[in-house]
Give the backbone structure.
Amino acid sequence: MNLLTELGRARILSAAAIDDPAVAVPLARALLAGGLGIMEVTFRNAHATECIRRIRSEVPAMVVGAGTLLTPAQIDEAIRAGAQFGVSPGFNPSVVRHAVAAGFPFAPGVLTPGEIEQSLALGCSVVKFFPAAPAGGPDFIKAIAAPYAHTGLRLIPLGGISETNLADYLALPIVIAVGGSWLTDRKLAAAGKWDEITRMTRCATEAAGATI
């Protein structure tokens, strides 16, 4: 699995905080039906690994990663569960090194030029830019792009992004995809409104120019 290739196809990385493992499979299927073939399950509760296992087993067409990875131990948990890539909200050198040593495709969170340079030095050319909107949005990214675009750096902005502004970010060549949780709204998932999630996803993927 090539993370850069998958993100380039999808243009959107949907982050899902899943409270009930029973929701994992129908949620993944709803996203896939809407044209989105990649998602991350956040490690914000004890169910994350079970959700990843179920999706890998029952929705094999979905590329599924683990998000909010904060420790080396969570990297190991994610790998054992079958996660195909990992994402962190910030830059922790010990976590990044552990992921790289394990051969685990990983996108660390960055906010500053220093964190970007450390990520590149450790072999991570795909990074999560978080929180994107509060940090300055597309204008900030344009400024960052100037000294780093030639390095092969690619950003996944996340934080304050939705269907209404994703095009502003995706118009920037250094942005490989945008991230967000608006497509995996917990209330819609809890209510089993899979058709609505599929509809929202289809609208978003069409706006992003995704290919599945």
